[in-house]
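Entry 14. Structure prediction run on the chain below.
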Amino acid sequence: WVSSPHYFCEILIYASIGFLLVHVPEGWRWLQVTTFVTVTVGYSALQTHSWYTSTFKGAYPAGRKALVPCFF
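Output returned:
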């Protein structure tokens, strides 16, 4: 379904921790960390997906997404 499922899970982990820390006085910093991780991991997932599609042209599934199943 996705080229980099481990990246998707990493974003979910950081978002879950951020959800738990939203009421902590310094919890807003976790939002910054989650945003940074999402942007850098998202970029890496796009690059990985691009490499897979160019390297395995005929064998790579055409409907596979880069990071989020059925969306992105």
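The chain has a mean pLDDT of 90.
Filed with the rest of this week's runs.
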